[in-house]
Structure formats: C-alpha cells, structure tokens
Specification:
6-phosphogluconate dehydrogenase C-terminal fold; Rossmann fold; alpha/beta; about 45% helix; 12 strands; Alpha-Beta Plaits; four-stranded antiparallel β-sheet; globular
Amino acid sequence: MNAEKQEKPNKRPKAGFIGLGLIGGSIAKAIRRYYPDYEIVAFDKNREALALATQESVIDVASTTIDSNFRGCSYIFLCAPVSYNTAYLKQIKEYLHEDCILTDVGSVKTGIHKEVKRLNIEKYFIGGHPMAGSEKSGYANSKAILIENAYYILTPSAPVPKEKLTKYRAFVESLKAIPIILGYEEHDYVTGTISHLPHIIASSLVNYVRDTDTKEELMKNLAAGGFKDITRIASSSPTMWQHICLKNRENISEILNGYIHTLTKIKEYIDTSDEQALYHWFDSSRSYRNSIPGSSAGPIKKSYAVYCDIIDEAGGIAAIATILASNGINLKNIGIVNNREFEEGVLRIEFYDGASSGKASELLQKFRYIVYER
C-alpha cells in the first residue's frame, strides 16, 4: 500500500495522534470535548500516557506501534519532538488517503516541509504550530482548553487544495483556537526571533549569573522581580530546546548575529558615555514594548499577576471580574492570552500589589477556578 491508494475514512470520523504529550494530549482532549463522536487513536512510546488517556476516555485505541489503527483517519497529528516527527513520516505515509489531512505541532517547520516534499506527500500536509504550552510537559499536564484563544499558525504545503486548507482552518477554529496562515520559512524566522531567541537569552542570562556569582551566591539569593520574570522560560524542557536549536539552526544563527550586533551597540554607548544614545535606546524600547498588546507601562519589573483557566463562553471574564470587585480587589489589567507558549492559563489578571494578587488567587480557587500564580 502507499499514499496514493484511495482509502475512504470510516463512517465514524477518526483522528490519529503520533505522540500524546502536553500539546498532543490537549488537542485530543479538545477534539473529545467538541467532537464526542470521533474515534481517537494514539501512539506514544510512553505507555503510561496511553493508559491514562484510555482511562480518561480521551482515546479509543492505544497503539504501541504505528500500524493499521491509523488507517482511515480524517486528521493525523504528529505531536512528537520536531526531530521525531520528521522520522515518523515514512511510517505514516501508507495510511494517508485523499480525504486525510496530515499535520504537526512543531515550532520549527522547514525540516518537516522538506521531508514531506521529498516523500511526495505535500498534498496531504498542513503544518501547524499552536502557540500554547508551559514549562510543564507530558500528557498528565494536558488540558482541553490549552489552545482556546491561542494563536494557531498553519503552514500549508503549496500543493494542498484550497478546500482542504479551508476545512482544516475551520476545524482549528472549532477547537476555539485562532488560526493564522504563514509560509513555513517565514514562520521559522518569526518564531526564531520572538520565541527561540528569548529562550536562548534567558538560558544565557541564568548561566551567566551562575558562572559569575559570588562565593556566598548573593546573586542567586537576591535575584527576584525582573530577573525571575525574564528568565522564567529557562525552566523549559532542555531536550525540546536542543531539538529546536538544531532544527532551526540557520535562522537562529542569523538572528543571534543580529542580536549580538545590537548588544555591541549598547556596549559602545555605555563605553563612550553617550547620554543621548542611551536615552533613545531605552525610550524607543519602552515605547515599542508598550505598544505590544497586553504589555504594561514602564521598564521590566515585578508584575503581580495570576493566570486562570476559563472556558470560552459568554460572561466568563465578567464573572471573574465581578467576584474580585465584590471582594474589594482592584484590577490593573485583565485579558485573554493569545500567545501562551510560555504561560499557563487562558486569562491573565494583573494587580497593583502582591497582597491583592495573593488574595485574588485564594478567592478564585474557592470558586473552583484553576489558578497559576506568577
């Protein structure tokens, strides 16, 4: 059998998952919530994840190999680390059919698009990257609302029929995510700058403090506020970021060259005591930072915020605002987080002080909301 064989999906729609970690598990749970009639089959090397997903009735079939259980799927999601997704393409190829959409969830796209082209399966493939996640990993931390109101980038292969792209875009929207269509090369450069570079900077800063700290570890013990906020993402999975750096190597190298040049400029301004250049540097960065949706005024500082899971339904935000206001808690800002690669929770609620943040967290948990403190 091969990808050209005209297989027809079963009467009962089916979705297949290769990898059932945080993202794969969350998408599977979302499908189960919004499409309860779907048959869901999953493969994962972690048998505990498969057992838990079966116990929770999220998946119908737990497969220990990529086999005929994946025949007849309307959608097949590649949700393993980016390097593994590419390797799994050969194994999944024979189960593709004309009505099947093959997709992935990796944050690097060029490599898998090239392999898809080499295997001559472009007409089935629409790359995907849900911009949601957290430092936690694994199926046990997945949740159906993880991708709700989160940007979900789609990178369709050129031969993909327009109607197939329209269908998948509508499917992503039905899972409450926000689809955005980009070319795969553009995707890798954009995410390399706003996602991959920040992780490298955060990790480098943490390592620099570790390597230059005093014998008494004063830096480590005094670190708080801005330092913890801008380095929090350094706690992410080292294996995942190892894969990302290797797969997006050329873009990241080019971006790092540009960033190093930028650091060289600020060093020059400091070395020469260029007051005007320094002021413009910080003033322009402040203005641009404050123009980004959801940003707060002023330089990076300690923010008092909680992140809360809410179902996307009318009145959800108003209900939370009412609970807090009726208990005398003043809000500084509240809004949906659309890019949640580094955040937990759908809703971000910011306060003026730590006492209000702590009180709000306790109060919302009493009302059975799932709250994540920062």
